[in-house]
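Board notes (copied after class):
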Amino acid sequence: MLNWDTNTAVRSVVGGNGHSDTDLAAEQRVEPQVKTRNTLFIGLGGTGQRTGLYLKATFLNQYGYIPDWLRIVVFDTANEPLVVRLKNGKDVSLEPGTEFVNMGQVPVGRIIRHRERQRAITERFGESLLRLPPTVLRHGAKQERLLGLLALYWHYHSVEDNLRRAIWHLAGRDNRRRDVIDVEQGLNVFIVNSLCGGTGAGTFLDVAFLVRALVDELGDLSDFCQITGVGVLPGAFPDVTGPYMLPNTVASLMELNHVMTHNDFEAGYPNGFKATIWTNENPIRVKYAEIFQEQLRQVGIEVSIEILEWSAYLTRTAAGEHDMFILGWVAVTGDADYGMYALFHSSQFGEAGNRTFYKNADLDRFLDEGRTSPDPEKRRQAYFAAQEIVMNQAPWVFMYVQDVLSLSRSWVSNYKNHAAGHHILYEVYNN
């Protein structure tokens, strides 16, 4: 039970779009005084459900009904509808099938076994599909973004139908509405989700593309429709823990950056926040910090750059005092163990090398296997799997891999480049 704690009184019970509560005690309908654009609220995952339910309860508390210009549609993989208590003591929840759509009951194992029959899923997921647990998704995606995305694709037609009905209703295109929307007034669509969970973080971009396609069906009206995404960051969940929260957030933002670059999406942080990037006196790193500072400024994040002396830099990042930092690493031995164990194993927090304090039990297992196995093929497979985890969960954002370039005279023989940038002159001779 979620207790609704506001001081607004319930004033009315009449009308609405099928969501009125006839048990609310009131004498007349109180209309909002501000003309509002027709609005579709789309909630994804638990965060989207909570936000949508609170939005509904706010209108019921204030006006006693849900206005006809608003539609609320929530999609979640956990069939666990939330309940809010209104000021009058009545309980309210999202209506199953219309306001709340369950995307659970996904037969993951069967989909994997018969993936050749699921062309859209195999094209979207590729080999990533084989890494999912072969089970049935019944009680939510549990911070697994791929499970949330798979649920969307498994229930795609249902999601599409629900969104199309809501959009066409608000646009005055269905038979139940005689009014037609003012073209220049347009339509608002808000997509609300967490960026650090499973369902919301896994589906928000695909849902955004779907909504854009459905809005385009409206013809000229689509030019006056605004689609806005609201992504909730981990700081909003101080009491929620999990190994994937921060990696999910980074992966979500990286995917968002990709579609911003290639598909005309725009992102921003509405109220902004401040953070600091640390670097040492390395001029290349300072230049990168300045580039990041400008890029983050464009989305509402104010970043200051702090340049530290090398010894202090290592000490303070090892203590975890930083917001963001820039460092490099060279695998001087040429072996994957040197390039991964110290940086990503959970036993190496702080000064040992893992300055992001990232922890993942599967990654630890692969790194341990790679470090201890005498079998070269098993080591190769272990490090391949470990790199997949690091790239997908992104405890680091990898900026560049430096090219090692060397020039030599035509009479110099047997000189070979070293991957770590060392100049090894043993057995080099003048011919």
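Comment from the instructor: Confidence is low (pLDDT under 50) at residues 1-28, 177-181. DSSP finds twelve helices and 15 strands in the chain.
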